[in-house]
């Protein structure tokens, strides 16, 4: 069990600074995911926590102890690598037991831990094989097993699922989640895949260009993104953004798109956005809030505004259908009922759940809130 | 116009293709290299074996076939000593070339990983010792070991107040002088092979080992050495064969002396043929060398990774 604290962490490679002084805390037993596009510094940050990269400036503490200069082997951590990094010349059994052997555990203890781990991950029948005789999914299991066999205080995952095919990735994702629920060990997990981040995390750190955009629970990031980047990064398909103006229309504060179409604001929104009246804004609405489906959540809600959109491209997913369309002069995607028989060129009635929409400052990208 | 060219090209292709397609006429393609190898490798080897069954000398163009040279080999009382000298020379050279080659390769690899300047200069300097011809290396080392007033090592010893060493004139020291010169010359080869082996070991293995709690020494023992194992074995066999066949360096350094203290098998064969003009007996020794090399080669082939293994 461990708490991790990262303070003003900076990483430079020569003259080139890739992590620009970030702060976050991981509480005991928490599953923290670092997510962001490639080159955002998430892996570098994880490798600094592991001790595989030196810290250029700032502090990393584990359980209150500064570990900047502690070598990896003395940090009591385990790490799962993207390419698995299994020792090719060792059997699965030796791979699982290696960390214990390096800590000079007695042979019987190692054997016991290896068997227990193999049972948990259901890889008992693979124990005598070499890594090259395993499939990708089996290698990944062994890599995770190598980490849990030692029962470290902190687990680090560096994009562990990105080399697996889609089906296996979902399977392993569930497996990792199950393991976390069972052991409740503090974990830091790096991925570029926002779905992985949302499904696994207790909390998420969204990174871009070496700075933190937002730290929060999946729910906070999804429902209350602090800026346009986080709003667009979390959620799939991504949020629709439409240029608009916060204007008066028929005596009420409304969203007015460039083509003149208007959407009335809810009472709550009128209040919060009062100080921004007349301002140019970026209107953000997720595809699932631009739909013809009524849910328990939105049924009878005050913010439902019926509109009609032209159907341009239809992508049926089975359970629901993505409709590529235009609204207020911008390209948009909406998520409608799967059974709808849609033909390009026709128009389809949908409703906008205004209570779930956001307004962003078109210059800074910051989400507008009550001021 | 382009159309005309295209047709001409097409015509050329259809005319040529059937005759030269490698899948249909492989022998035409293989023939030049086969002939070259036959002429330069197989023919001399066959000739050596043939001459070993004769009484040929370089002084008389006529000879007849006989087994006398092989019978002489059985009665040769100096053979035991020659084999012992050869074994010492090969064994010591191989062990130290491997050790030094590995040390330098590790240092170079570390240097490259840390972006240290001058790594390529070091590599070139070390490699240059390998491309020096054996005879030239022998002469250079003769100057270094020389017991005359200009001898490099002895003048160093004199400067620090130590007595001179009879590097080349004492039989029990001369063999080690020859070994040292040969180690100097052959280490670069091992270094290059092992360096190539080190470079391809994935970095993440070391990172995983570091996180797993392995110290630098244990990382070397549990990751580097096992990963290098196939290359170490092949390297050992290759340099064993090279060293077994080395005579140019010893010829220039000691000429096999003092007495016969540094006369290895290959030098003995050379002396028999070109000093005693005894082609037949020299060929017999060459056949013995060939047999030993074949045994090494057999192991080498066994150790090479098979094509269906990855």
UniProtKB/TrEMBL annotation, chain A:
Pfam families named in the record: ABC_tran, OB_MalK, TOBE
Key words of the record: ATP-binding, Nucleotide-binding, Transport
Gene Ontology MF, one: ATP binding
Domain of life: Bacteria
Residue ranges annotated for the ABC transporter domain, each copy included: 4-234
SUPFAM superfamilies assigned: MOP-like, P-loop containing nucleoside triphosphate hydrolases
The UniProt record lists the keyword Nucleotide-binding: yes
Keyword NAD set for record: no
Similarity comment text for this entry: Belongs to the ABC transporter superfamily.
PANTHER family: MALTODEXTRIN IMPORT ATP-BINDING PROTEIN MSMX, OSMOPROTECTIVE COMPOUNDS UPTAKE ATP-BINDING PROTEIN GGTA
Designated name of the protein: Sugar ABC transporter ATP-binding protein
Organism: Devosia nitrariae
Lineage: Bacteria, Pseudomonadati, Pseudomonadota, Alphaproteobacteria, Hyphomicrobiales
TrEMBL record, chain B:
Residues of the ABC transmembrane type-1 domain: 83-300
Keywords: Cell membrane, Membrane, Transmembrane, Transmembrane helix, Transport
Family: Belongs to the binding-protein-dependent transport system permease family.
SUPFAM superfamilies: MetI-like (SSF161098)
Organism: Devosia nitrariae
Subcellular localization(s) per the UniProt record: Cell membrane
Record's protein name: ABC transporter permease
Keyword Protease: no
Primary location: membrane
Transmembrane segments annotated in the record for this chain: 26-46, 82-108, 120-144, 173-196, 232-259, 279-301
Membrane topology reported for the UniProt record: Multi-pass membrane protein
């Amino acid at each position: 069990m461990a708490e991790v604290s990262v303070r003003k962490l900076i990483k430079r490679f020569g003259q080139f600074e890739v992590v620009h002084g970030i702060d976050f805390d991981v509480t005991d037993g928490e599953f923290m995911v670092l997510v962001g596009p490639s080159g955002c510094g998430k892996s570098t940050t994880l490798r600094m926590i592991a001790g595989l990269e030196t810290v250029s400036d700032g502090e990393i503490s584990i359980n209150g102890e500064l570990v900047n200069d502690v070598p990896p082997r003395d940090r009591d951590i385990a790490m799962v690598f993207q390419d698995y990094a299994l020792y090719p010349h060792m059997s699965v059994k030796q791979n699982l037991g290696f960390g214990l052997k390096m800590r000079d555990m007695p042979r019987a203890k190692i054997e016991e831990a290896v068997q227990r781990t193999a049972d948990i991950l259901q890889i008992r029948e693979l124990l005598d094989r070499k890594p090259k005789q395993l499939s990708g999914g089996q290698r990944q299991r062994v890599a995770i097993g190598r980490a849990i066999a030692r029962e470290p205080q902190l687990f680090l995952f560096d994009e562990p699922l990105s080399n697996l095919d889609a089906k296996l990735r979902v399977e392993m994702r569930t497996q990792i989640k199950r393991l976390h629920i069972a052991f409740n060990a503090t974990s830091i997990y790096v991925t570029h895949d926002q779905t992985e981040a949302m499904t696994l995390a207790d909390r998420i750190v969204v990174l871009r260009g070496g700075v933190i955009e937002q730290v929060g629970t999946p729910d906070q990031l999804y429902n209350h993104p602090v800026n346009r980047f986080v709003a667009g990064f979390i959620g799939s398909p991504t949020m629709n953004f439409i240029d608009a103006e916060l204007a008066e229309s028929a005596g009420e504060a409304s969203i007015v798109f460039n083509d003149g179409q208007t959407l009335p604001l809810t009472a709550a929104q009128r209040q919060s956005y009062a100080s921004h009246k007349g301002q140019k804004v970026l209107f953000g609405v997720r595809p699932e809030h631009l739909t013809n489906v009524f849910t328990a959540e939105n049924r009878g809600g005050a913010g439902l505004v019926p509109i009609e959109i032209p159907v341009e491209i239809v992508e049926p997913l089975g359970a629901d259908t993505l409709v590529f369309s235009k609204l207020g002069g911008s390209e948009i995607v909406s998520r409608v009922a799967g059974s709808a028989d849609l033909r390009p060129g026709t128009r389809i009635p949908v409703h906008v759940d205004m209570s779930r929409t956001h307004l962003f400052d078109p210059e800074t990208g910051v989400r507008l809130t009550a001021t | 116009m382009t159309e005309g060219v295209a047709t001409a090209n097409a015509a050329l292709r259809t005319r040529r293709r059937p005759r030269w397609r490698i899948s249909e006429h492989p022998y035409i393609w293989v023939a030049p290299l086969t002939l070259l190898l036959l002429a330069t490798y197989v023919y001399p080897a066959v000739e050596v074996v043939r001459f070993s069954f004769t009484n040929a000398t370089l002084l008389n163009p006529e000879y007849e076939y006989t087994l006398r040279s092989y019978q002489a080999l059985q009665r040769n009382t100096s053979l035991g000593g020659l084999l012992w000298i050869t074994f010492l020379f090969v064994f010591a050279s191989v062990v130290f070339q491997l050790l030094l080659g590995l040390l330098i390769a590790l240092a170079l690899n570390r240097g490259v990983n840390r972006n240290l300047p001058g790594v390529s200069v070091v590599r070139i300097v070390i490699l240059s010792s390998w491309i020096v011809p054996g005879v030239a290396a022998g002469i250079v080392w003769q100057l270094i070991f020389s017991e005359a007033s200009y001898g490099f090592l002895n003048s160093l010893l004199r400067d620090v107040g130590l007595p001179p060493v009879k590097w080349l004139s004492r039989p029990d020291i001369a063999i080690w002088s020859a070994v040292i010169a040969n180690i100097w010359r052959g280490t670069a080869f091992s270094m290059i092979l092992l360096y190539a082996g080190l470079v391809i070991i994935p970095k993440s293995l070391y990172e995983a080992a570091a996180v797993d709690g392995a110290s630098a020494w244990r990382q070397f023992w549990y990751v580097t050495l096992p990963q290098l194992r196939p290359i170490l074995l092949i390297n050992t066999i290759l340099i064993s064969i090279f060293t077994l066949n080395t005579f140019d360096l010893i010829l220039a350094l000691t000429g096999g002396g003092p007495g016969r203290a540094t006369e290895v098998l290959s030098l003995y064969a050379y002396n028999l043929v070109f000093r005693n003009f005894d082609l037949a007996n020299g060929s017999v020794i060459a056949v013995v060398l060939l047999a030993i090399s074949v045994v090494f080669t057999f192991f080498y082939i066994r150790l090479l990774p098979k094509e269906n293994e990855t």
